[in-house]
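Hi, here's the filled form for the chain we discussed.

Project: internal
Contact: R.S.
Residues: 242
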Amino acid sequence: MAGLSPGLAALLCALQVQAAGRGAAVTQELLQEGFHRDLLVKVDLGETGEWAGGCTVVARSHLPPGIYVDPYELASLQQHNLTKAVLIPDIVDVEAPEYSATGLVVLLYLERDPRCSRCFRGALPVHVRYHRPAGDGEEALVALKSPEVLVCCCDDHQSMESWKPADVEAPCSGKRDCPCQWYSAAHKPAYEELILQVPVGLKQHSALVCVVTLLATVFCSSLILAAVCKHGHFFSLVTCSE
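And the returned structure, exactly as it came back:
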């Protein structure tokens, strides 16, 4: 850097080293409100993204037991090309409560952002599980860790020599019949984890809820039985008195 003062030259060198070592920037957010959300993941590969145009970029998220992805809903969305993801395991108990469910790994395939040549993004519907009742004013907290960024260039390996191979094999095209080697991209998450506050019932209301539920069940069953006896058709063995 001829012609520059020593202080300015040192500053420029520092900026160059920082830019060269800058990894991918990852952000995730939960859209909408309530128990049914959309998980939006955005990845900026930085300088790496300039040559990743023909590669596949995936965000690997480890979902805690308190949140899940409906495999039937996911299959419907993939049929309409609205999203692309792989669940590990692919069988999910959507009825299980949080305290008896297990975690889930989601491989969300990201699409290039048309407004940014080095940016990728993807969205996936997620659902909150039922949680145990808590004490006064308490809420259940679900911590969603920052996803890992995986890059696969099945047709071009020359740019992947300096990358660290990932410990998981996954389909590069989103189909299970095309496995290939993935590489983990060094990234800096905007936040280490995303905290979701889940409203839960109160323990002191348990007895009241049970009583009201029982009375409502008996009342509704009586109405149904009365309507069936009055307007329904029965076999000769069954008689109803008006």
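Let me know if anything looks off before we file it.
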